[in-house]
Amino acid sequence: MTFRLRPLLTMATAGLLAPGLSPAASADNAPDGSLLYRQECGSCHTAFPPQLLPPASWSALMNDLPHHFGTDASLEPEVRRRLAAWLAGQGAAGRPRPEADRITRSGWFRHEHSELAPTVWSRPSVKSPSHCGACHASADSGVFDEHNVRIPR
After folding, report:
1. Are residue 12 and residue 83 in the same domain, yes or no?
2. Which of 30, 64, 89, 108 is 20 to 30 A from 97, alpha carbon to alpha carbon?
3. pLDDT digits (tens, 9 = 90+) for 11-26
């Protein structure tokens, strides 16, 4: 299966995300919030395609940023509000909410990765199911083409 991110979310990979932009400037320059999302969320981990979670999951995640999977990912209130609104609008309406709001526990993710042995996730080069870039070289660009997967040893 090939999953492509919407073109606006890949603006940063085209060099359009200027270092040092303030969160307010980022939001003003990206009508749908994609630039702000890449700057704020993508600075710590892959900016996962918003379509991988339903709006309810994004809402829950954004409302508990001080406890974001064991890390304090707090944001300024206005930045949090803008991102929450954008993510809610990008989320996959109708997609079931996965356990603990984790993409890696969604039915879609489990189906797509069902052929992998559980030991793959514990390899030092992979680290965890959420480390998409270990196998998907274009994960940061939102491309998850199964024909270009390289599972490290």
Report:
1. yes
2. 30
3. 333 333 333 334 444 4
Contact of 106 with 98, CB cutoff 8 Å: yes
**Would you state the structure tokens that stand for residue 140, as one six-digit string?**
């940061």
Whether 38 and 11 have beta carbons less than 8 Å apart is answered as yes
Single out the residue of 56, 52, 123 nearest to residue 88, CA to CA. Answer: 56
Q: Residue 50: how many CA atoms within 13 Å on its side-chain side?
A: 28
Total count of domains within the chain: 2
- pLDDT tens for each residue of 97-134: 999 999 999 999 999 999 999 999 999 999 999 999 99
The verdict on residue 1 lying in a domain is no
